Amino acid sequence: MAHGNQTHGHTSNGKTSSTYKSWIAMRSRCQDSNHTFYKNYGGRGITVCDRWQKFENFLYDMGEKPKGYTIERKDNDGDYTPENCIWIPRSEQNKNTRTNRYLEYDGRRQILTDWAKELGVPHSVLQKRLALGWSIGQVLGIEHHTRVRFVYLEYNGKRQTMMDWSKETGIPYETLRGRLRNGWSIERTLSVV
């Protein structure tokens, strides 16, 4: 993507300012169909306003990019315009992706990562609880979750704990547990592959 003659002082001696790099990246995401992230921006109809096609106007409207900051669209479905964009810390922008999982409990809505930090619980633990189908209160450890102490499996008329089946078949307990979680039948779970 050509950028014309540079007169703004943000490129010199082969070095480019962080502000200028952000402007180039913003335009590329929206205008270059070969850009890695085009599908998430230009491909979704996100555009850069006419005014910001010139770097000098972008710089005038946004100011210098603070260290550790990135450009953020207030409306994630809106265009890159002076009214819709601000500089925010990268850590804050990482929360504003469409892939984040939000949990709402007792009128409070946060991404899973923020709940994990607040509660002092590893993010992976909360993810696992969600995958197990726990309620939001149970996932967050606010409501009591009743654990089943032993899991019994019945096969060929014989009923015993998964630990006993593990000993009998020689298949590690965690392997049996993983197979069941993956939807394997009891017969297949207990078979030595």
Helix and strand element order: EEHHEEHEEHHHEEHHH
Q: What is the helix content?
A: 25-40%
> Helix count, per DSSP?
9
Strand content: 15-25%
The assigned structural class equals alpha+beta
Structure keywords:
3 domains; disordered N terminus; 193 residues; two-stranded antiparallel sheet; single chain; alpha+beta; two-stranded antiparallel ribbon
Structure in words:
The chain has 193 residues and is of the alpha+beta class. The protein has 3 domains: 11-96, no CATH class; 102-139, no CATH class; 152-189, no CATH class. The protein has 9 helices and 8 strands. It has helices spanning 18-31, 55-62, 90-93, 112-119, 123-131, 136-139, 162-169, 173-181, 186-189, and strands spanning 11-12, 15-16, 69-73, 85-89, 102-105, 108-111, 152-155, 158-161. The chain has a two-stranded antiparallel sheet with strand order 1-2. The chain has a two-stranded antiparallel ribbon with strand order 3-4. Strands 5-6 form a two-stranded antiparallel sheet. A hairpin with a 2-residue loop joins strand 5 and strand 6. The protein is elongated. The model is unreliable at 1-5 (pLDDT under 50).
Summarize the structure.
This protein has 193 residues and is α+β, with helices and mostly antiparallel strands. 35% of the residues lie in helices and 16% in strands.
